[in-house]
Write a structure and sequence with these properties.
heterodimer; A: SH3 type barrels; 3 helices; 6 strands; 17% helix; B: Rossmann fold; 7-stranded mixed beta sheet; two-stranded antiparallel ribbon; 10 strands
């Protein structure tokens, strides 16, 4: 199971969750409105779904932008568009950017 | 042409390059979905392609070839699109097994070409980083290089090649650009030092995974493969680590003790390395612009307008199938009739002429005339797929699918079911959850496939008036749309029943990549459509040809002595009734009579079990038999003129509707049953599911046809119920 540990290998294009901690509280991705940005803290879904998400570029420490929230959540992940169902976004913890 | 020996049958040690490099004879193409991999494959190989299945499984396997500069033939295998080698889905497992030299058919690539989308380099490099560790010669095809440039992204190709340690060739597959440099790079790759891992594990991670790597090497993996496999085993589901369970668990414990989350390690390490490469090689810091795609999505994914656009597009597809194909179909029909005429004029009257004209030409001809519709259907599906709309359709349909217990991913196999249930059932392999997959397999044959189209077209063309509604929409195309909707709704309802009873289980969450909208490449479309048409014609030329001959024989013998007192039509009718085919029809008549069908329809239905299109060719054979002038009359006209003993038309509107509805639901297809057996688990389990599928669909077909017939009879005030 995933934990809340901050990843060892921080990436230049991602923000450590702690950097935003002063601004807003961590929440689930489903709660982020269209137009907002957030950094993935934890993938609380099944191991197999988490493995697939990571291969699609959505791993812990990645910054994502919510493009659309009309049919599940449409994200900008590393320049690609990824649509995720609510069942999944409710189990992904993110740190919203101020 | 010289045949060059290949080293590909024996696994090569990945740690050392061969001393005398042999020019490559086998190339595997791998890449993320939506990278233009198949377009590149088509551009490389043209029409020299062979479609089959991977050994032991039913994932479609497309292999092609091209001639190298020295005349050598190079085989190219188009592996299924995959985001990683994690083997979470059967498609990924195929790519993994072929690249890890474990595929069932022993096909081992000499060179691996990783097709990457230049506009989404960062995400695509994840798979590249895994493939590099296989130890095989690798070439990276930087596809859609033009689109990247247009969006303001400049990629330093020599620097990227240096960073990855393998040749990088920019390509634009849609325009066929970069193919020659790519072919040269493939030839040269075998002479380069084998690639490998380009980053080091942190000390704590290296120590934790070392015992697992060692165990993997003891099981026959090379050092590089063991390193790749160890990271993979840590990132996949704990229940799928198989024989290495204990070692994986110990590695996970060691990592947790070092305050590391095992599942995150592979992605974190790879993306950290990728970020460095992107920083070095991509000069524009900006992400590719999605502005146009986002603007289109603003409309296409609108809550109200979105579904309306979806329905309008589907209606357009069916309008195209029905209206636009007609001139081509008429031309083909005339050609078939002309061939029949020529044969009749050339050969003397007798059994051989009857076999050729009434059996072969009438039977195969009546199926071949549907070629324009098959081509139009696959063109439409290709345009929807290549333009990027298909993924949006899956997203729009996710809510509907979820309501019946499936998810958006089941939609693409179901939509493919409009073309053919066989590839559609194969496409369910992208659905990870076994129960969702099985539920989708069970309902896919309810989607009206292209083989039903000849039956629909024949009956609608003959019995539904060509009235135009609202000035431009014909009643015929609306009826056709209704048949497709009926099948689709039945499929959704059946899925809901399966998911609430036999296949109760959780619904997997939706994960779907939406590729940017693109103009489909006419060249790539042409190759795909030509490939599908060729498969259809091969079927018409083999199965349907054989069945047409068998049916002609059954309809001809035993012969009835000619009675000069009877009219030609009466003689033909009696001869058919006396034949073996007529006797079979009589035997099954009681079962189909309540649906309004006579024995001739019964025979055609029974014969269509080989393939639905055969219904039309059987009708062609039945009504073509005994025609002494040998003229292949248009089936439609003959059907309209067919009368019962009491003078009422056999094919009244209620009968035509009943027959249409029967074909919407009935699983009259041997190939689908065979594929269900294999895909639903094989052996006794597979047969049980296939039997259930056939049984429930037949019951549904009989019941629905019965109700349709009765209701239509009452509404039309008919009496011959």
């Amino acid at each position: 199971m995933a934990t809340d540990t901050v990843p060892l290998f921080a990436q230049p294009n991602t923000v450590r969750p702690a950097a935003d901690a002063a601004g807003m509280r961590a929440c689930c991705l489903a709660a982020c409105a269209a137009g907002s940005r957030a950094t993935v803290v934890r993938l609380g879904c099944d191991d197999s779904d988490a493995c697939r998400l990571r291969a699609l570029g959505l791993n812990e420490g990645t910054t994502v932008a919510v493009v659309d929230d009309r049919h599940g959540t449409l994200l900008d992940v590393r320049g690609t568009r990824l649509a995720l169902g609510t069942a999944l976004t409710e189990r992904i913890t993110v740190q919203p950017h101020v | 042409m010289n045949s060059v020996p290949t080293s590909s049958l024996t696994p090569r040690s990945p740690s050392a390059a061969p001393t005398i490099p042999v020019p490559p004879a086998r190339v595997a193409l791998v890449g993320n979905p939506n990278t233009g991999k198949t377009t590149l494959f088509n551009a490389l190989t043209g029409l020299r392609q062979r479609v089959g299945n991977f050994a032991g499984v039913t994932v479609e396997r497309v292999e092609g070839s091209y001639r190298a500069a020295d005349g050598r033939s190079v085989a190219v295998l188009d592996l299924p699109g995959t985001y990683s080698l994690a083997t979470a889905s059967p498609d990924e497992r195929i790519a993994h097994d072929v690249l890890m030299r474990r595929s069932g058919d022993g096909w081992i690539p000499d060179v691996v070409v990783v097709v990457v989308d230049a506009t989404h380099l960062e995400r695509n490099l994840f798979l590249v980083s895994q493939v590099l560790e296989l130890g095989l010669p690798v070439v990276v095809a930087l596809n859609q290089a033009d689109a990247a440039e247009r969006s303001g992204t400049r990629i330093d190709v020599p620097e990227l090649s240096f960073a990855l340690g393998v040749p990088v060739v920019p390509t634009v597959a849609t325009r066929g650009e970069g193919l020659e440099p790519l072919r040269r790079a493939i030839d040269d790759a075998v002479r380069l030092p084998p690639p490998g891992r380009r980053f080091a594990l942190p000390a704590a991670v290296a120590m934790a995974v070392a015992p697992l790597e060692l165990q993997l090497q003891e099981h026959g993996l090379s050092r590089a493969e063991a390193q790749l496999e160890a990271l993979r085993l840590l990132s996949i589901d704990a229940t799928e680590t198989g024989a290495y369970d204990g070692a994986v668990e110990r590695a996970r414990d060691a990592l947790r003790a070092a305050n590391e989350e095992p599942g995150q390690i592979e992605a974190s390490l790879r993306y950290a390395w990728i970020s460095q490469i992107v920083t070095r090689c991509v000069s524009s810091a900006e992400r590719p612009s999605h502005a146009t795609s986002d603007r289109i999505d603003g409309v296409v994914l609108h809550r109200v307008i979105g579904p309306m656009i979806f329905l309008a597009l589907m209606a357009l597809v069916f309008q195209a199938l029905f209206t636009w194909a007609t001139p081509l179909q008429d031309a083909l029909e005339a050609l078939v009739a002309r061939v029949g005429d020529v044969v009749t004029a050339t050969l003397p009257a007798g059994d051989l002429r009857s076999l050729l004209v009434d059996g072969v030409i009438a039977g195969v001809g009546s199926v071949v005339v549907f070629l324009p519709q098959i081509a139009i259907l696959f063109t439409c599906i290709g345009v929807l797929e290549d333009s990027g709309y298909m993924a949006r359709a899956a997203l729009l349909m996710d809510r509907v699918m979820r309501r019946v217990g499936l998810h958006g991913r089941s939609f693409i196999p179901m939509l493919s079911g409009y073309a053919c249930a066989v590839p559609a059932i194969m496409a369910t392999r992208t659905i990870g959850e076994p129960k969702d997959r099985l539920a989708t397999i069970m309902v896919v044959p309810l989607m009206s496939c292209s083989a039903r189209l000849p039956v629909y077209t024949l009956l609608i063309g003959a019995f539904i008036p060509a009235t135009m509604l609202f000035g431009s929409v014909s009643l015929q195309s609306l009826t056709l749309l209704a048949m497709y909707l009926l099948g689709t709704l039945a499929a959704l309802a059946a899925a809901a029943v399966f998911k609430r009873t036999l296949l109760k289980g959780p619904v997997r969450p939706m994960i779907l990549e939406l590729p940017p909208y693109r103009w489909p490449s006419p060249r790539a479309l042409l190759v795909t459509v030509a490939q599908r048409c060729r498969l259809f014609l091969r079927r018409a030329g083999t199965v349907i040809l054989a069945l047409s001959i068998v049916l002609w024989a059954l309809a001809t013998w035993p012969r009835l002595p000619v009675d000069p007192a009877r009219s030609d039509a009466a003689q033909r009718e009696l001869a058919l009734e006396h034949s073996a085919l007529g006797r079979i029809g009589r035997a099954i008549e009681p079962a189909v009579a309540p649906l309004g069908f006579d024995w001739k329809i019964g025979v055609s239905i029974a014969a269509s079990f080989a393939a639905r299109e055969v219904f039309v060719s059987t009708m062609g054979t039945i009504y073509g038999v005994g025609g002494d002038d040998g003229d292949t009359a248009k089936l439609t006209t003959v059907l309209r003129a067919e009368r019962r003993a009491d003078g009422t038309p056999v094919y009244s509107l209620p009968v035509a509707l009943s027959l249409l509805v029967f074909y919407v639901f009935a699983l009259m297809c041997m190939s689908t049953i065979a594929i269900t057996v294999r895909e639903a688990g094989g052996g006794a389990v597979g047969w049980r599911w296939a039997a259930l599928q056939f049984g429930y669909m037949l019951a549904l077909a009989w019941g629905a046809a019965f109700v349709t017939y009765r209701v239509a009879m009452v509404l039309s005030g008919g009496t011959n119920a």
